[in-house]
Design a protein that fits this description.
Substrate binds at residues 33-36, 89-92, 102-105, 129. It catalyses: aldehydo-D-ribose 5-phosphate = D-ribulose 5-phosphate. One of its GO terms (biological process) is pentose-phosphate shunt, non-oxidative branch. It holds the Pfam family Rib_5-P_isom_A. Keywords: Isomerase. The chain has a seven-stranded mixed beta sheet with strand order 3-2-1-4-7-15-16. The chain contains seven helices and 16 strands. The longest helix has 17 residues, at 35-51. It has helices at residues 7-19, 35-51, 62-70, 78-81, 108-116, 148-161, 198-206, and strands at residues 28-31, 56-59, 74-75, 84-89, 93-94, 100-101, 118-126, 139-143, 168-171, 173-174, 177-178, 186-191, 211-214, 216-217, 223-227, 233-235. α1 packs across α2 (35-51) and α2 runs parallel beside α3. The radius of gyration is 18 Å and the shape is globular. The chain is of the alpha/beta class and 236 residues long. β2, α3 and β3 (74-75) form a beta-alpha-beta unit. The mean pLDDT is 96. The structure holds ribulose-5-phosphate. Ribulose-5-phosphate is lined by residues 32-37, 89-92, 102-108, 111.
Length: 236
């Protein structure tokens, strides 16, 4: 499954492999989105195929659903599962309090719904994702297509009034057209540099008409399994 891996892929793989320890026979498991979460899905697929692990997986994107089925994991919807034992997902940034920025892959809405409906959320990440203060990675905000430029202007005005350092916002593109999420929405990326009060910003953003969800995961993550390029793993 692994062959010769670059240090970054090795870091992602060893984190994902170790995180399979959180999964037990019979569990309902939320399956994250992104390149690190894809390693996790492949590792779980191997355990299903070769070791008879029986799990039901709830994917957080159409991409992950497709991969999970390819590797032999039984896929069910969140409403069929009702509640999950654990969700394992990647992140774009995590801090010492295990708060996260997610949504680099555009799946933050399903990811937050699934993680919130789980007994435990475990993040798998390479060490490059660890930050002192969230915000170097542009904060993804999912917005409805209707009036998205008006929503963008409202977000920018609000950032000014909150005295946030970086205030540029960009529409995420897919070639010449705006990126479209699994729910048919768009993503605005907020270039903030440093988020002073992540909890407050998350609350303010979600109160705006037109905003569906933001990529700040505050008090949702229970553990981060961190991989290094030399194969070491640490759990935060
Ligand atoms: C997708 C996500 C991903 O988990 C995040 O972007 C990390 O991805 P990767 O593991 O490829 O670095 O939030 O919406």
């Amino acid at each position: 499954m692994t062959g010769e891996l670059s240090p970054i892929d090795k870091a992602k793989f060893v984190a994902a492999k170790q995180a399979t320890d959180y999964v037990e026979d019979g569990m309902r498991v939320g399956l994250g989105t992104g390149s690190t979460a894809a390693w996790l899905v492949r590792c779980l697929g191997e355990m299903v195929r070769d070791h008879g692990l029986r799990i039901k997986g709830v994917p957080t994107s159409t991409r992950t659903a497709q991969l999970a089925r390819e590797v032999g994991i039984e896929v069910i919807s969140l409403d069929e599962a009702k509640w999950l034992d654990v969700t394992i997902d990647g992140a774009d940034e995590f801090d010492a309090d295990l708060n996260l920025i997610k949504g680099g892959g555009g799946a933050l809405l399903q990811e937050k719904i699934v993680a919130t409906a789980s007994d435990q959320m475990v993040v798998v990440a390479d060490i490059g994702k660890e930050v002192e203060t969230l915000g170097s990675f542009p904060l993804p905000v999912e917005v409805v297509p209707f009036g998205w430029q008006t929503t963008q202007a409202l977000i920018e005005e609000t950032l000014v009034s909150m005295d946030v350092l970086g205030r540029t916002t960009t529409m995420r593109m897919n070639g010449a057209a705006p990126f479209v999420t699994d729910e048919g929405n768009h993503i605005l990326d907020l270039h903030l540099n440093r988020i002073g009060d992540a909890r407050q910003l998350a609350m303010v953003l979600n109160q705006m008409p037109g905003v569906v969800e933001n990529g700040l995961f505050i008090d949702i993550c229970d553990a981060v399994v961190v991989g290094y390029g030399d194969g070491r793993v640490e759990v935060r």
